[in-house]
Amino acid sequence: MGYTVKQLKELTGTECYAMYEQLNHYIMDSYNVNQQWEKEKKDGEICLRYRRGGKTLCTVYFRRGQIGIMVIFGKEERKKFEESESRFSEKVRDIYYRAQTYHDGKWMMFDVSNSELYDDIKMLLEIKKSPDRKLTMCGYCCDMCQAFVRNIRKKDEREQLAGYWKRYYDLDIPVENMNCDGCRCRKAEARRIDDACPVRACVLSRKLNDCAECENYPCETFLSRKGLSHAEADEMEELDVLSYHEYLAAFDNRSRLERRLKRNDD
Q: What are phi and psi of 231, to 5 degrees?
């Protein structure tokens, strides 16, 4: 779609964008969903849908000075909300009971300009769907990676991925070698881009699930893996957000693990 972080910040404002960024990190860290960016004429300047298998988790509308977050609850989700509504703020309860109910559910729109409703929105999403994203041992996301064998079968985008790996990680890997079953695959002949990955060997030897469980995190072995921390901040601001999520977000492992550790501490 061609929207950059800089453009979205200019449209919504820095504080409002921070709310979107916080919510987006939570969704993409926690849910196996895709991003669909569209130009929207009715509800906002730009529309972002988080979808998987024809179902929408939520929709974000980027507007001048604010964002709108649309969540739709079916019958069972409404029952769960009403059984636990005391957990939610008065503002969210008011929006819930004022929202129109159509044949496909109750449509709730939350207009926000800061992070005030973040915890409420997060709980609403957890009612709608339980988090289901699985990470690799170092914190990469296989289902987001265009070199993952399941993604190759659906749509082969390894040539584009190779260009991003070369630019941001200085990795020059032949396209035909970019074919991976993931580090958690237990098949005897599993294909991995890096069969000698030191992080995988370390996690397995320590009987951990991933690096975030290790008391030595982040250690030199973990830091030896390429991640987006190698890219300049200004360069990332100019990168369009769809390209980032399709070709680079899978490998932003340190940021992802540190966000999870922070949530656990909170």
A: -85, 150
Q: What is the pLDDT of residues 178-195, one digit of tens each?
A: 999 999 998 988 999 888
Model-level pTM?
Answer: 0.87
Bridge partners of residue 116, in order along the sequence:
none
Query: How far is the C-alpha of 149 from the C-alpha of 143, rounded, in Å?
Result: 9
Sequence-distant (≥ 6) Cβ neighbours of residue 125 within 8 angstroms: 26, 27, 31, 57, 58, 71
Calpha distance 204→34 (Å, rounded) = 30
The number of residues making up the chain comes to 266
For the chain, the average pLDDT equals 90
The answer to whether 200 touches 185, Cβ cutoff 8 Å, is no
Helix (H) or strand (E) holding 216: none
Tokens of 195: 């069969």
